[in-house]
Amino acid sequence: MIKVIFALFLAFQQITCSGYLELYFQSEFHLKATVNITSCSTTAPPTLIPLMISSNETVKMHKVPMKMDGSEYQITIFVINQDRLDIDNATITTSFVPKNGQISPLTVMFPFTGIRMRVGCDEQWHGEKCDVFCCSETASRVGKVCNSHGQLGCPQGKRGLDCALPISKKWCKCQNNGACISSFGKNLHEKMQCECQLGFRGSHCEERVDNIEMKSTYGVDPKKFEIATAKMLYESVVDNELVEVKRERTGGHFLQNLRINDQ
Ligand SMILES: *[C@@H]1O[C@H](CO)[C@@H](O)[C@H](O)[C@H]1NC(C)=O
Ligand SMILES: *[C@@H]1O[C@H](CO)[C@@H](O)[C@H](O)[C@H]1NC(C)=O
Ligand SMILES: *[C@@H]1O[C@H](CO)[C@@H](O)[C@H](O)[C@H]1NC(C)=O
Question: Are 81 and 60 in contact (CB under 8 A)?
Fold first, then answer.
């Protein structure tokens, strides 16, 4: 048994990493959009994805592979609103370094009511950079699971080489509802570690993961532009209906993030 597990660990050491971005959108309007995903660290052409968004339906965009090696990505969502012709277009931009467990913006603006930007690891990959490989099938053959750290561990609540002993939460002192789990290191030494809820990190889940920030710019024709439209745009900030972790929003966010392009 011990030999088997040790051999597995050797097989687990790999260098490549593998993750993806998944986008979800929600709006009260019918929208025609193009999503442009550009990696800032390569000269590869951007990924352009056309999307039709029907009102009040959550639209999910297929997964786009992402490099998780610290490269920055720029994402631009260009939108034509087919229901509000007084605003010609909207451009929503963000740039970030993708990390597993990142959370979506807390607020969104016209014409959206929800945007989820889900960064995840491909199957069998784990860790913030999706660079820790652990094969769940092989793990289950030795009565273990791959935990969120990409280490062999016991199913939640259990510990011991045979995963037959109970775990006491007190051993880990995890904050923010983190779970105390078992994790077998290379020498089969078992450690108790925290497995954090989405939105938290750190060895005791004591740190908040930052949310992604987005900026909106509107293209409006000055001839059609009215005070009522400007007021509507300024007041269109809403709590993101698709955010994974609800938090109170910080003030002043939308004014900084609004620019009307009317020349
Ligand atoms: C979408 O939802 C909003 C708010 O609930 C509502 O005002 C609007 O009429 C809905 N649109 C459609 C096409 O159902
Ligand atoms: C996509 O975004 C990149 C980076 O912002 C930009 O240089 C490029 O022109 C855009 N491509 C299209 C087709 O909009
Ligand atoms: C967006 O709208 C503005 C204002 O009407 C216009 O000048 C601009 O060309 C539009 N952008 C695109 C890409 O259509």
Answer: no
